[in-house]
Predict the 3D structure of the following.
Amino acid sequence: MKKLTNEQRDRLFELARQAKQKGETLTGVFKKIADENGLKSGSVRNFYYKWVSEGRVEGLTAKSNVMFTEKEEGELLRAILQQRRYNKTLNGALLAVANGDRVLALRYRNKFANMLKKKRQAVMKEVLFQKKLGYKPINPYVLKNNRDEKNKLKREIDELISIIRLKCAKENQLLKSKLIRYEQLTDGLDLTDDKKIL
């Protein structure tokens, strides 16, 4: 990400302090600063937490950088997998686990993605445990594979549509030029009698 100027940094941390006093989440602050400066909201968020966690800003904390214990990881994993049974989307499940706190849900999303990537054995152990209890947990790896396949299929369909559009545009142009040529050839002729054209 491009560096924020001193003025932009001051504004970011001032808005963060105001949000903290009002009991609001920082998501809106990150988006506002991103929009004002042509940045991505996630980049502003990362910048914020890096500076705060390094102790470079007074009066603000970086709670999202507090590490999960192994027990908390297990509890979070279980809660997310249980909520996936009731929610159609992962976002819905994460929001439910986070009691509607979008910032916390984002933190849980990052942790869950990290567990899927680095702790596959623990994830699958929890999936199997829930199956033994009689639940029907969603296997997040199957879900990811299905999503990847769906995205691949969507890309292939989009490419096919582009090819068809291009071909139709060329065909359309050819027909238009034939029509213009026909109009030029028949200009001034009475077309009610086909024999006059011959």
In short: The mean pLDDT is 79.
